[in-house]
């Protein structure tokens, strides 16, 4: 609909110019760039850095993440404006999970969009559950604390997320069993190239477990690989959507004989068949019991944290010389 404006008769040209400036500023506000945050956490040596390199088109060899690493990327949005995403990648499995709350609080306090991607090693089911369980509990408790400290913002975000879910899935049979999060969550099963060679029954148990977890936490679920071209592309699409909320993966698959790809809410407890409980707390307990009865969990392999100052990628001749001299003085 065309809007009409009354122009001063004495100076129509200047009025039109002023009006054009106002409309231009209004349009600029509508298409202004956004800054988002994506936290990548999960299993050790699972390919998080490699996936991020693919997304950002960085043709560099991946090196182990020592603790936490930061990078950023920019992509054009639908309005032709470049959005920015801050990527925080946690190394060491669950070792540095204590920093997750701050990575979530800071952008939320600035009213920015936050997402978390749990990248799990499908080839190591004996560590898969305890890794995911610890990380999801840290994220959940962080969001709960944020809600207690910022109830108005939390309730506003929750209402929007709940409204979106009910709009997309108005008749979902399990809506009372789903824990809607105020941030987007993504579960990524990596190393599918190794997982696909597992016994079919083992694959079924792992797939059922991750499908149930994704459903009750309102998360998407996608299987990827860093060695197969189709799944490399899938991983890039998932991180692109997680980081920029643009062009979600179009494939949907719930068959455990192929790489899973399930958006939030496109699954049901009945179709999955892993648990019979109908309350969220009972489902979580039953799901853990279901998975660990098939795959008893073992502690993550402890690895000695490398001294960053000794890493070839962080060499600084002048600083290294000063550090070496100071160490000699101390000794």
Automatic annotation (TrEMBL):
Keyword Transcription regulation among UniProt keywords: no
Location relative to the cell: Cytoplasm, Cytoskeleton, Cilium basal body
UniProt KW keywords: Cell projection, Cilium, Cilium biogenesis/degradation, Cytoplasm, Cytoskeleton, Developmental protein, Dynein, Microtubule, Motor protein
A single cellular component GO annotation: microtubule
GO molecular function: dynein heavy chain binding
One BP term from GO: intraciliary retrograde transport
InterPro entries: DYNC2LI1 (IPR040045), P-loop_NTPase (IPR027417)
Main localization of the protein described in the UniProt heading: cytoplasm
Spans through the membrane: none
SUPFAM superfamilies for the chain: P-loop containing nucleoside triphosphate hydrolases (SSF52540)
Family to which this protein belongs: Belongs to the dynein light intermediate chain family.
Protein name: Cytoplasmic dynein 2 light intermediate chain 1
């Amino acid at each position: 609909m065309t809007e009409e404006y009354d122009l001063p008769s004495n100076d129509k040209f200047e009025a039109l110019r002023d009006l054009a400036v106002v409309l231009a500023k209004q349009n600029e506000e509508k298409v202004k760039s956004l800054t988002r945050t994506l936290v990548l956490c999960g299993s050790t040596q699972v390919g998080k850095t490699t996936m991020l390199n693919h997304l950002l088109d960085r043709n560099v060899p991946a090196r182990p993440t020592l603790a936490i690493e930061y990078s950023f990327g920019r992509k054009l949005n639908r309005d032709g404006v470049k959005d920015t995403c801050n990527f925080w990648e946690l190394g060491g499995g669950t070792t540095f999970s204590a920093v997750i709350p701050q990575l979530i609080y800071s952008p939320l306090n600035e009213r920015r969009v936050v997402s978390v991607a749990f990248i799990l090693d499908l080839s190591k089911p004996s560590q898969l559950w305890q890794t995911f369980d610890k990380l999801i509990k840290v994220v959940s408790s962080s969001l709960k604390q944020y809600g207690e400290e910022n109830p108005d913002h939390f309730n506003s975000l929750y209402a929007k997320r709940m409204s979106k879910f009910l709009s997309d899935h108005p008749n979902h049979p399990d809506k009372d069993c789903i824990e809607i999060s105020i941030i987007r969550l993504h579960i990524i099963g990596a190393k599918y190239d190794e997982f696909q060679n597992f016994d079919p029954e083992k694959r079924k148990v792992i797939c059922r477990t991750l499908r149930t977890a994704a459903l009750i936490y309102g998360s998407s679920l996608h299987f990827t690989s860093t060695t197969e071209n189709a799944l490399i592309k899938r991983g890039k699409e998932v991180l692109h959507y997680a980081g920029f909320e643009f062009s979600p993966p179009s494939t949907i698959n719930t068959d455990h004989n192929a790489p899973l790809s399930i958006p939030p809410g496109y699954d049901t407890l009945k179709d999955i068949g892993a648990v019979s409980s109908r309350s969220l707390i009972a489902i979580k307990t039953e799901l853990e019991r279901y998975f660990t009865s098939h795959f008893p969990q073992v502690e993550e392999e402890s690895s000695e944290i490398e001294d960053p100052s000794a890493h070839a990628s962080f060499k600084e001749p002048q600083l290294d010389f000063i550090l070496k001299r100071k160490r000699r003085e101390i000794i």
